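Encode chain A's predicted structure.
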Amino acid sequence: MVRIVLALGLFLGLWAAAGGYGIGLPLTDEQLASYEALPIVRPSGAGLPEGEGDPATGFEIYAFDCAGCHGPNGEGAPFDRLVADAPFSLDLPPHRFAVGNYWPYATTLWDYINRAMPFASPHNMDPDEVYALVAYLLAENGIIDADTVVNAETLARIRMPARPLYRVDPLTRQLFPWIELP
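Encoded structure for chain A:
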């Protein structure tokens, strides 16, 4: 009986305290306006903002913002590698995957960097810086030339080496049945 009373008391105490923490309260218009909605970037390049960057500028950004986590040459230390040393293969261990041998779309790389990097202060780069960093990573992986300028138009046209290796859904016989690919 004592256990039931204690359990009921604990439940009622937690229930009463939940309202005190503001759990489930709707956001005010002012709070909602303080959140910046990031654009949705599609594999086709739809949603990419204006801007451009080149590998030389990207190298400077990489050295300052990325090398501490991904190694001075993108070899991965302590976090994931960014520069591939081998072509994509299903036999590669997961820690060997990198931009050049795993990512299917260059636009997805841009979107990921824009949203989540650098790790300590995500979404801290302007579009030109993200384009430059993507250009640097693509050049280091041998996907583009070192003098290629990357922007919304050129990025969407880049064919990533791993793209044809993604498997088709056996039920629908489509690569990604929920979206239309470019």
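The radius of gyration is 22 Å.
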